Structures are given as structure tokens and as C-alpha cells.
Amino acid sequence: MLGYDDIVQLLGDENGLRKSDIFICQEHGNLESSESMDYKDFTGELMKKGSGQTNVDAIYTSLLKSPVLGLAEYQEKCFKKESGLMKREVNELMKRFSEQFGRQYPLLAFTPKLRESIGEGAKCGLLSEYDYMLIMSKFYNYCQVNSISNCKSKFEMMTFPSIDEEISSFERNLILHILMRKILLTRSIWEGLHLKFVSCKRINFGLCLSVVFNGHLYKFLQISMDLVSPIPLKMLVPVNDWPVLLDFSKCQLYGLFRDGYDGFDLSSTDYEEMLLKALPSAAIDAYVFGKAFSSVHFKWRGKLLAKIFEMSYTMKKYLLISLHQHENPQWVSRHECMKGIVFVASNMEKFVKKHECRRCIFHAEEWTRDEKPKNNCLKLYF
Asked: Which domain of life does the protein's organism represent (predicted)?
């Protein structure tokens, strides 16, 4: 039998746009956009496609309820149940993977941490894309971070576990990935699950595991899982640059191994997750709308809005920068959040400092290791 998502896929036209009755924008594939369009123009254009709707909130609400474009918490009970099953299955797979890998390679043992949209509770549509950090805490003991600049760090690796000779970054990553693939191909970690192995490929920062899920509604639904293996940097990193006081004491920076680079790329995913979870539901809704507008369901004729909604990670930055301008982000409405995303994206030169990365949400100061622990405090700023 076909699952819900299979039926939606079959309804696509030659442009890949799904014309199912998911929400009330029946002509959502041809929204106008110009170089100077602002939020008011955008909502006006959106309402023209909304089957006679005069209230943009009605369109937004229907978007949130969509099982293909919306948030899981707004969906019908049957979709919530299926999404819950899917998430539990993926978590169980990662738990088995972690336990078996740790038993076989104890010095490289890791703890899986779900991150990005699903981890932040801001996933748009199906829970079919998972991002896991496989945090290798013991591996930290073999590394020493010496300096940080432009969200990258230089470090020394005293030795690779069980290997005495010096190895390159490519060899280090390749060894890790070969060992992980070996465990992922073990039959025992898949037994009894609704998930079936499809492929496991190397990517720039780790592995991409593809599986298929067979549930009650979704049949042969392809799920991708990015598996990134960072080490926790275990550094004291205060953040004092947000309008509302938040407790970042349990957050830490991570170093991501990347092919072709001998150091780390810094990841502040803990801090970003803390910010997202502290935001009002209106802000999360706006973030999900933006991701929906970047999907194949919406095809912008102009360049401005297509660029704004092009990448979810940069759109997250636009949202957070706009909220940073308010004394209390908790009181910002859904419309103000959407308006803020459009405004910041159109005026990034006003908000980004010279030589600052436009993609990173948190930025680390220039830092060099000092022998005195009290001088080793690194600072992050938003």
C-alpha cells in the first residue's frame, strides 16, 4: 500500500511541485517576488493565492498543520503518532550503534546527540532528516587546542588511539569512518526495527546514512542521517550578548573534524539550541514558515525572497539577529518575526561586522592557549 507521503509525491507536476490539498494556498507555485518586496507586499501576494482568504494568519495556521510543511505539534493525531514512532526508531538505532561501537573501540566511544531542526523542535514537515553529533569525549584527551581564529581552531594531536605514528587529517577521518561503517553494517543493530539500511557515504564532516522507514502511514520513506564526530573542547565559554539572561553553563563548544583541514571547525550547536528553546512559539513558527517557503512547494519568480528563504541555517541567523534588537524577544509576534527575517536579510551589511562570518550564529574571539588556566577563558559573542 502507498503511504501518505508516497501519494503526495505522485501528485507532483513536471516542476516537482506537489499540488496536494495540504493547505489553502492552491496556487502556491507561482508567487511573485521583486527586488524591493517587503513583508507587507509578501503577505499580500500570499493572500492572493489563499483561496479567497483575507487573513494571512489563516494561511499560516494551515501551513503549520500540514504534515509535509508544518510542525509536528500542530498536526493531526495520526501523523503525530507516526512521527513519534519514526523518531523512537532512529533513536534506538543510534543507541545500539553507540553501545556496540563503544564496546569494540572504547577509546573512540561516543555519545549521540540529536541536533539541528529536530533537536531544536523546529523541523519543517516530515521527520526524515536527522543530524547527530557523535560526541567523542575520550578522544579529547589525545588533543590540545592551541589557538582559535575566525571560528576555526589549531590543535595538536598527541597520538591517535592505538596508532603510534603521526597521521594526516584525511587518514584520521578515514579510519573513524571505516570503523563506524563496520558497525553500521552489523546485522544486530537493525534487528526488530522499522528501519532498513540503504547506504552509508562519506561527507565533508562525517557520514551520511540513508535508511528506509516502514510505518503505518509512511511506506518506504527515505530518511537521511548526517553523522558528525566532534570532540568537546571543554573550555569555559561565557556568553553575555543576549537581551534576556540565559543559562549557558551546561553548553560547550565542539571541534568538528573536516577533510582537508588539520584543525577543527568550531560548532556552537549547544548555544544555538539553548537560544532556540528559549524563543517564543511565534518565533519558531516564523522559522518553520521560512523553511516551508524555501521548499519546492513555493517557486519565487523574483530573486529577493528566493535568496532570503534559500538556506535554513542563514535564515535562522536572520531570525535571531532580528530578535536581538528587541528588549524582550518573548513578546515578539509571529508577524514581527517574519518581518524581521525579511528586513535583516535585506540589510545584512548593517548587522554583520567587518570580516565576520555571515553564516555563523556565534563568533569566537581570537584566542591563544595560555599556561595559566585563569587566562584560558574564551568568549563568544552573538
From this structure: Eukaryota
pLDDT tens column, 226-277: 999 888 988 878 776 777 788 888 888 898 887 767 778 888 889 888 888 8
Query: 3-state class of 233 per DSSP?
Result: coil
User: What pLDDT score does 27 carry?
Assistant: 47
> Domains (ranges, CATH) in the chain?
77-237+254-268 (3.30.460.90)
Asked if residue 58 lies in contact with residue 65, where contact means CB atoms within 8 angstroms, the answer is: no
- Distance in angstroms (rounded) separating the CA atoms of residues 262 and 153: 9
Q: Can you tell me whether residue 89 is helix, strand or coil?
A: helix
56-88 residue pLDDT tens: 788 888 888 888 888 888 877 888 888 889 999
Neighbours of 159 (CB within 10 A): 12
Q: What integer pLDDT is reported at residue 50 of this predicted model? A: 55
Cα–Cα distance, 110 to 229 (Å, whole number): 8
Distance CA 61, CA 285 (A): 9
CA distances (Å), 181 to each of 115, 177, 178, 206, 208, in order? 21, 6, 5, 11, 10
Tell me the whole-structure pTM to 2 decimals: 0.82
Grade residue 28 by pLDDT with cuts at 50, 70 and 90: very low
Q: How far does CA 254 lie from the centroid of its chain?
A: 15
- Looking at per-residue confidence, does 120 or 33 come out higher? 120
Q: What are phi and psi of 371, to 5 degrees?
A: -65, -25
Helices then strands, counting H and E runs in the chain, come out as: 11, 13
Q: Is 61 helix (H, G, I), strand (E, B) or coil?
A: helix
The pLDDT of residue 23 is 45
The contacts found for 76-83 with CB under 8 angstroms, 24 or more apart, are 78/216, 78/217, 79/4, 79/217, 81/216, 82/215, 82/216, 82/217, 82/218, 83/126, 83/127
Amino acid present at 378:
L
CA 234 centroid distance within chain:
22
